[in-house]
Amino acid sequence: MIIDLQTPITEEAAASLRAGDKVSISGYIFCGRDAVLPKVIQLIHEGKADFLGLKGGVIFHTAVSPAGVGPTSSNKLEIESSIAPLSEYGVKLHLGKGQLHPETVAALAKYNAIYAVIPPVTALLGDKTLESELIAFPELGMEALYRLKVDRYPAVIAAAHGRSVYE
Prior knowledge:
The protein is of the alpha/beta class. The chain is built from 5 helices and 8 strands, in the order E-H-E-H-E-H-E-H-E-H-E-E-E.
């Protein structure tokens, strides 16, 4: 069974997901990776991040380029270290690829946030990406913060409520 998720993701929807669930994500999501996520965290620390609209949101660990979007490794230092503070701020779903450290899985549980892996299928995701908008940090080019409107992005919940499919 595939669980349909619509953004923004509610606390109740996040609480209902379990490691191993198959999901389909629709609505607006944010794209960020190594270069931009530390800048987003800095905005949060400065109390200047509300304009981004991240609460209840999804952060897809990817860049946006003419070739399309595809997941990058979520366990890169700059990306994985952003997961706990973004979750505390209100991001509900982190989307990427790869195994997270146990401390990160615990932080997700603490903030009722979820991590899901997405298959590296750029062509499939291109067909399911309806809109792309540059939101912040244009100087970073394809690694800037983008907001996408997506329709039924496929993913598998990889960490939820202190459990990981990688255990």
